[in-house]
Design brief:
single chain; mainly beta; 66% strand; Lipocalin; 16 strands; two-stranded antiparallel ribbon; 10-stranded antiparallel β-barrel
């Protein structure tokens, strides 16, 4: 059902865009500006996911590496909303904040034994799973080239991966459920560029990477994206964008004051691509 919706809705939106653009050409022209004070965007994204995780029990490394799509039956494509806001306090400075939803659930009969935390799920078990991996993102950009129609600079990305995992099954005649939540910090550094073409067209790209250790988290993050925007009228634009995130998070056991170690520890290998159609408002 989800795949069918995606296959019909996205082409329909694209067809609507092709119909609207010629009509919009007759509207009063907005001269596109690289230095607007505020920008707000609401997007429908086709999120393309690939996730592997390992959640350990009492000993680091004793959990099974689970492929969320193959082992648990999670969808690889999902239509999800995305919100973002940009604020430019000065010509060379910009701050962007946003939220990308990435929420999935599935029912699957296991085709192999897996261990999640201290719980073993055997082959043939019917497993109900929820796996949410929303992303909060915050970016600061500094333009070392700030011309009227060209902008190039440094981009610092911060944020968090909000992991929420739930598994439920019947084992030996009783219901067994495992629920784990963790917030993994993210960060990356790189370059961005923006360019204008004519009075209505706007193009941008960005690429960032970093490997960091924060508390018990060891994180490698590779992020990038590109977008093209067409302004329909004075405050409104349509944007077609692509974004990519590849995240590897290793989580060490939590140390308590008495020296004991607690759950959870493990590893998350997570990639997300998104193709978005956004409505952009410039007040």
């Amino acid at each position: 059902m989800q795949i069918g919706l995606r296959r019909t809705l996205l082409p329909a939106l694209g067809l609507a865009l092709l119909c609207v653009v010629p009509l919009a050409a007759q509207a009063p022209v907005r001269k596109v500006n690289l230095y607007d004070k505020f920008q707000f965007s609401l997007s429908l994204t086709d999120v393309i996911l690939n996730s592997d995780f390992r959640i350990d029990g009492n000993e680091p490394g004793d959990g099974t590496e689970v492929d969320a799509e193959d082992d648990l039956g999670m969808e690889k494509h999902k239509l999800q909303p995305r919100f973002a806001m940009r604020w430019r306090p000065g010509r060379r400075h910009e701050i962007e904040a946003g939220y990308q939803f990435a929420r999935r659930s599935a029912n699957k009969t296991l085709e192999r034994d897996i261990t999640v935390g201290d719980t073993v799920y055997n082959i043939g078990a019917d497993l109900e799973t929820t796996f949410n991996t929303d992303q909060v993102f915050l970016a600061y950009r500094f333009a070392f080239m700030a011309k009227e129609r060209t902008q190039v600079g440094i981009a610092l990305g911060l944020g968090a991966l909000l992991l929420d995992l739930g598994l439920a099954s019947e084992i030996a005649g009783r219901d067994v459920a495992v629920s784990k939540s963790v917030t993994g910090p993210l960060g990356s550094l790189g370059l961005y560029g923006r360019f204008l073409s004519g009075d209505r067209w706007y193009f941008e790209f960005e690429g960032r990477y970093v490997g960091i250790s924060i508390d018990r988290f060891k994180v490698d993050v590779l992020e990038g994206g590109a977008a093209v925007r067409y302004h329909l009228s004075e405050p409104i634009g349509l944007e077609l964008g692509w974004a990519f995130s590849a995240i590897d998070v290793n989580i060490d056991p939590k140390q308590f004051e008495n020296g004991a170690e607690g759950i959870f520890s493990g590893e998350i290998k997570y990639s997300l691509q998104s193709i978005r159609l956004a409505l952009v408002w410039v007040p």
